[in-house]
Design goal:
single chain, 203 residues, alpha+beta, Jelly Rolls, 3-stranded antiparallel β-sheet, 11 strands, RmlC_Cupin_sf
Length: 203
C-alpha cells in the first residue's frame, strides 16, 4: 500500500504537466498539399539556355517563329517568342484582355497602330502595349521584319502554336484557310479579341 500511495503522489504531477503541455502547445501544421506547392512555384523561372540557332524556326501562315521561353519555363509568368513576318503581313485590329504585349524590333520596320496612333518602328525600336488596348501591326516594307514578342503573363503563344499546326495542313492560298483561321480565332478567343480592320498608312 505504501508503494502504491507513493506512485500516485509522484505520478499525478507528471500527468498534470503532460496535460498542460498538450493544452498550450499549438497543433502541428498540416502537411502542404500539392496545390499549395504549385501556388508557391507560380512565377519562378527555370534555367533556359540555347545555342545559336536553337530552338529551330517553325513556319506559319505569314513567316516563321521560334518559341524561346514558354509557360512551362516560367510557370505562367511570361513568355518570349521570336517572330519573322513577311512583307505584306497585316493583322486586324484586336486586343488581349488579360495580357501585356511588347515588341522589340530586331530587323526591318514594324508598323503598329495602337488606339488612334500609328507608329513606325525601325530596327532597335520597342513598344509595350498594355492589356485591353486595341492595336494592329503590319509589315509595310519590302523586307521581312523580325521581332522579339514578350507576353505577360504567358498564354497567348499557344495561339501562335496553333497557327504553326494549321500551316502544316492548310496554306494561306487555299480556299479553306480563311475559314479554318476564323475557327482558330474562335477557339482561342480568350487570348485574342478581333475588333475589325484598319487602314495602314501608305509607304
Amino acid at each position: 500500500m505504501r508503494n502504491r500511495k507513493v506512485f500516485n503522489q509522484t505520478g499525478l504531477p507528471a500527468f498534470l504537466f503532460l496535460a498542460l503541455c498538450l493544452t498550450i502547445t499549438p497543433p502541428l501544421r498540416a502537411q502542404k498539399t500539392a496545390n499549395d506547392l504549385r501556388k508557391q512555384q507560380v512565377g519562378k523561372t527555370g534555367l533556359v539556355v540555347y545555342k545559336t540557332g536553337e530552338p529551330a524556326a517553325l513556319p506559319y501562315d505569314f513567316g516563321k517563329v521560334r518559341f524561346l521561353v514558354d509557360s512551362a519555363a516560367t510557370n505562367g509568368a511570361w513568355s518570349l517568342v521570336e517572330i519573322t513576318e513577311q512583307p505584306g503581313y497585316k493583322t486586324p485590329m484586336h486586343r488581349h484582355n488579360s495580357w501585356d504585349e511588347s515588341f522589340y524590333v530586331l530587323e526591318g520596320t514594324l508598323t503598329a497602330k495602337v488606339a488612334d496612333s500609328v507608329y513606325t518602328l525601325p530596327k532597335g525600336s520597342y513598344i509595350l502595349i498594355p492589356r485591353g488596348t486595341p492595336h494592329g501591326q503590319a509589315n509595310l516594307a519590302s523586307v521581312p521584319v523580325k521581332l522579339l514578342l514578350s507576353i505577360t503573363p504567358s498564354g497567348f503563344e499557344r495561339h501562335i502554336k496553333d497557327r504553326v499546326e494549321l500551316f502544316k495542313t492548310v496554306k494561306p492560298e487555299h480556299s479553306e484557310f480563311a475559314t479554318k483561321m476564323d475557327s482558330l480565332r474562335k477557339k482561342n478567343a480568350k487570348y485574342i479579341e478581333i475588333l475589325g480592320s484598319w487602314d495602314a498608312p501608305k509607304r
